[in-house]
Amino acid sequence: MTPVLIRLRPIVQATPTANGLHLRGWSSSCTITGGAGLWKVWQRLAPQLTSGITDLEVPEGTPPAVRAAVSLILDQLREHDMLVSMSAEWDADGPTPDVAAWLESAAADPIDAWRRLRAAVVTISGTGPLAEAAARAVAAVGLAVVRESGTQADDAELLVAAGDLVVLAGCGADVGYVLPIEETFNSFNTEATMRTVARLGLTGEPTPILATLIGSAAVHRLVCAVAGFPDPASEFAKTHPYPMALIARTNPLRATYHPLITASHLTPSALTDPWQALDALTDPELGLVDPPEFGTLPQVPAKLARSGDSLGIGTTADAARLDAALNALKSDGIDLLHATGTMLRRAALLHTGEPVDDEEWADDPAARRWWKALTERFKVPAVVYVERLARGAYKAEIRDSHHLLAWAVEATPAQTVALAALAATGYAQAGRDGTAHLNNAGPHQRDQEEALQRTLADLDSAA
Q: What is the pTM of this model?
């Protein structure tokens, strides 16, 4: 039976520190402390691990201090996946030294990963520098390749496939993209490609440098999937629940991953984290709307943001960004609770209730602040009308002599007036005409939202 060799992954680098050593691997690093002698132990241990050993046990008779140091180093190497087990040596049909080093650096089982790769046939569809760059990348790994040209891709488009796995990429004169790995063609492929091309504004012929970057990145993404490696964007995807596309640009040459949010992700129930969704919706490369900016907008007393021509209002910068993005999207909300709350409030606006005296809200600090900002700071000749629609549900309308300036429906008279006055203040502060609306259904303030929505739903069904 062939013994299993345990080796130090080729990617691992070590640096001495004042009290030990620092190790860096493929996807993690660690610092081991315990005295300057740890570095001397590492210098003796590393060559053995590089060559490969069959037993990680510290030999009998090793001095206790050295035994402890070796055990400490080995424990950290195991914990941070810096050791690899090789069930066999590379044979004559093995990869080139560079590919072998890559597999030994990243694969759980390098031999098995190579078998997967060797069994795959990579199909490249496209012509021109983008397809040529992809073909060179496949050849560098040592895989079988089939070239296709014709209707599926042109000089600026690339399709790289192996079995059911597909990667789509495209490239213009100064920008290119690589979409996430997918299983065969589906609606995501079509929608993502069309929207990515439109958003990036691809024009011109691919330049050799950018074509090489995009073609190689597309092959890298496919090869990782075939070999059973994590996707190259997996680390970035930890902060976003959406597919990640690689976007590369020139002047200077750079490549970064960006969340790719499509119509299938926009159903309110799919938006599990409102702030992650906002980041994806307003991503500077692939967002559905322009990133909200504060620009030259005045930020006192309300916070204001603008996405394209859409204005956002809030008491905080995040709230203003969210409101601007939703207005640009013409969306009712960033998640299901938000969207439902907005729709129920819109329906409740049509109902009438019992008038509420000013005394029920006038002593509230927030309501008083925004009412004074509107009527005293901005000199808007406004009147507020507050009605009780049901127990725990109130409506406020702020009007001048001709128009409805703002409205709100909330759980208390004070909240209702505060939101309506804040909305009207934001419009006045920005010098904008029209009817403004804000509500507490957003992710920044939801203490009474579920109870209010039940009340509004009952109100609507009883009408």
A: 0.83
